[in-house]
Specification:
The protein is built from 7 helices and 21 strands. By secondary structure, it is α/β, with parallel strands linked by helices.
Length: 334
């Protein structure tokens, strides 16, 4: 029997850090992820994107953060089942679950921590009639390697953190950067908004607001985006790449069939320990919801920490939990 203490569904940053917190409490973890390698969205979607809100790192590349998390959990020897999706959860006896994957792998554990990020996800596409004909021919929904745009003319669309952060980064790489947003106000961090405004004021980027992309032109390869701007009508912008960054559309997939309480495509949890309505099953990171929820990696790390403490008490109700600071004993001292 392939048995562990905690089965973690999702090997993104929150799932990986939870291995560390569980390891400090002498609990073993087995992670399951449908992707081929650990890291979740950080590895699959934007490994070269800088992240600015990780404590102790003024800036860290997403891929570098994953590498560091993997080094951090190495002493605890977690097991991984990658490239397989968790399909079925069954309680086989008291405090013992069985998770069956899409390839028939069976993993048994006392506790389940769902850290599936947004679940199954796909980019939100703008309503442009011929956009699919230009996918991978100038239209990109995800930026994996910023150097792809070196010396190119690019138009990004969006008003959130992702659009702002990539605009700032690519302003030093691309030949010409245009940011298109349908409003004059942005949803991203104020610091990022200020940086984008400064770039626009100094002429390092083009900023078009109260506008949206309505069409694409090109002979097999994209060369123009049609923009409709309030007060100026419709006009063309010459580009090599169009990058609409409107976020990801979450789809829970099999998670929605596991008897958990769902609200707005997310799992409802108790903020005391991020437990679900099913005893022994927790949900941490972007997959969960509660009043005041913030979808930040930083918050997911906090949730995983409290979850691990609760999981220990659930698995070992008769044992006294003696928590120590890592600065007192070090990882090998636990």
């Amino acid at each position: 029997m392939n048995k562990t203490d905690i089965i973690i569904i999702g090997a993104g940053p929150v799932g990986l850090f939870t291995v560390f917190e569980a390891g400090l409490l002498k609990m073993k973890c087995h992670l399951i992820d449908s992707l081929a390698q650990p890291g979740g969205q950080l590895t699959e979607i934007y490994p070269k994107k800088p992240i600015y809100d990780i404590p102790g790192y003024p800036s860290v590349l997403a891929g570098e953060l994953v590498d560091n998390l993997m080094k951090q959990i190495e002493p605890f020897k977690p097991e991984f089942t990658m490239g397989e999706r968790a399909e079925l959860i069954e309680r086989v006896e008291d405090k013992l679950f069985k998770v069956t994957t899409s390839k028939g792998t069976e993993i048994y554990g006392s506790v389940i921590a769902i850290a599936g990020g947004l679940g199954c996800f796909e980019p939100r596409k703008p309503p442009i009639e011929n956009i699919e004909s230009f996918e991978d021919k100038g239209v990109d929904y995800i930026i994996k390697d910023p150097q792809k745009y070196h010396g190119k003319k690019i138009l990004l669309a969006g008003g959130g953190d992702s659009a702002l952060d990539w605009t700032i980064l690519l302003s030093d790489i691309a030949d010409e950067v245009t940011l298109l947003h349908r409003r004059t106000s942005f949803r991203g961090a104020l610091d990022s908004v200020e940086k984008v405004m400064d770039l626009a004021t100094t002429g390092r980027i083009n900023l078009i607001t109260n506008a949206q992309a309505i069409g694409l032109n090109g002979n097999g390869v994209l060369n123009e985006v049609l923009v409709e701007e309030d007060g100026k009508g419709t006009y063309g912008v010459g580009v090599d790449h169009f990058i609409p960054l409107f976020g990801l559309a979450p789809k829970l997939g099999p998670i929605g069939e596991w008897g958990l309480e769902i609200e707005d495509n997310a799992i409802k949890v108790n903020t005391y320990d991020y437990s679900t309505n099913v005893p022994g099953i927790y949900a941490i990171g972007d997959i969960n919801t509660y009043p005041g929820k913030l979808k930040l990696i930083l918050c997911g790390f906090h949730e995983g920490t409290l979850m691990a403490q609760s999981a220990f008490k659930y698995i070992h109700p008769d044992q006294k939990l003696s928590f120590k600071y890592t600065t007192v004993a070090g990882v090998n001292g636990f």
